[in-house]
């Protein structure tokens, strides 16, 4: 099978939608030319991100291709969420060791499910032979000047996080067989695994936060490392109260008490949004949280200085190995 | 070294240009956030393409990293050229087996040279560990409705090609050591190698062709295969005269007479532009060619039917294995 037949079979929509999509998708020309053509509205900026997942490094070689596709797309969507943008279009560069039709069937199904759920369109890509590697490039749009960036945090801002932290790391440990814990039920394990394989990109939260946040980032390398990026980009420091860090019941059951905080603060892959909010907007944001419109929790504050400091419930400073993921 | 230090060291400009570029680059936010932000002009559409090069598949594992980077970028630029668009921005997803600083130094130098030459800006990317793989996503802009696409060829149009064909395939054979030919001088071999490693994306030609061409494609899989894509997308056939196929003196020296046409017609990697021109614009295009403003040659015509047919100087139909590159 050549590249063209493969793309036609697995990645074009049965209704040809990816080929010539309707006007409101913003796709002028989809799969099947030298380039795709998109046409963002003139009052919008385009945000763009790319992420690569390598078999044996970012996921187990023999993992379910449907889950691999979904995770790859969700991770890219999370970067769009962290900008407060609407996901719109993506490209798939897929490197495959061999033509495995069952694998491709499951992979393309997983991709389509997540793409449809988040209303983004596959508009092009590249298929090559080689070690299994998935690179997705995702584009989104945001009204001019409204994107959430890392460098906007100010001294006095409150620090928030959506959802809870550490679950994905526990899921990965279960996946790798590194966990023996009698307290954990099958349902608990399933929850933690799904948090690793199917992180929820906080798209609607990101869109809402355009009205509240002064800075935002998604948690891929761990809260301390990622909040550290906000601090560094903004030229400020952050102070967190460890007793305010949100953790799930499942994670609490899964790991020892002394490991719990380190996991929640330094493990990556949760893809929650960490964001800062100016004090004059905190009351209004809290009313959204109280109304259940936004699931988020205040963890601490932006202060002058640099770096991220944690204090326990007694006010003592706690140290964690917070270097984030070391790629090399 | 973590990903952030690596990017800062090798891929940010000394003047910080990739971080916060001047307004006219269209980059609102460059390297260093969850996404880059670009702001195309409102009268423009955005074209986008992605191409992956895998070590051992698309280039020799131990090849010069400066050349690898340049070829990767030039191949993506060629897709932009084939749309008649202006290259603007790119993302680099780089997967490396190890942290080799000399390799990265040479790679980033090669990338910068080509990016500067074609006035495009590295605005973001991803760095991961794994088998050496380079995925570049390139974006360009084109006035609304002015992009060159594959599906516009009409019966009666003339078929043209820029430059000459087959050199890159001969260069690759030299590189792979599969060539013994006493006629070939060192300068000939150098020329053919440079056509493989440093294909010239036909950017200025593509921009000019917006006023002339009804369809265009770049030659990555061989003329017959790629012109076949124009034919299929346009619902027409193409007829070529083999004696009109432009070949270099170096290629003529490098391969046997009976191999020459097959190489020129079916070998890939030349990245010339094949395009079709309505008859009422042929005279005007030919005057550009006569004036030396455009280097291109008429090869044949678009006729009714499907596929691509070649005739030799006696008018006989010639058959070539024209399936293009089989990825699997």
Walk me through the structure.
The structure is a homodimer of 328-residue chains. By secondary structure, chain A is α+β, with helices and mostly antiparallel strands. Chain A has two domains: 3-143, 2-Layer Sandwich (60s Ribosomal Protein L30, Chain: A), CATH 3.30.1330.10; 158-318, Alpha-Beta Complex (Phosphoribosyl-aminoimidazole Synthetase, Chain A, domain 2), CATH 3.90.650. In chain A, 34% of the residues lie in helices and 25% in strands. Chain A is built from ten helices and 13 strands. Chain A has helices at residues 3-10, 65-82, 101-117, 167-175, 186-197, 203-209, 223-234, 249-254, 257-266, 279-290, and strands at 27-29, 36-38, 44-54, 86-96, 121-129, 133-143, 158-162, 215-218, 237-241, 273-277, 296-303, 307-311, 317-318. In chain A, the strands form three sheets. In chain A, strands 8-10-7-11-9-12-13 form a seven-stranded mixed beta sheet. In chain A, strands 3-6-4-5 form a four-stranded mixed beta sheet. A two-stranded antiparallel ribbon of chain A has the order 1-2. In chain A, a hairpin with a 6-residue loop joins strand 1 (27-29) and strand 2 (36-38). In chain A, helix 2 (65-82) packs parallel to helix 3. The radius of gyration of chain A is 21 Å and the shape is globular. Chain A starts with a helix and ends in a 10-residue tail after the last strand. The relative contact order of chain A is 0.15. Residues 15-21 of chain A have low confidence and may be disordered. At the A-B interface, helix 1, strand 2, strand 3, helix 2 and strand 4 of A face helix 1, strand 2, strand 3, helix 2 and strand 4 of B. Strand 3 (44-54) of chain A pairs antiparallel with strand 2 of chain B.
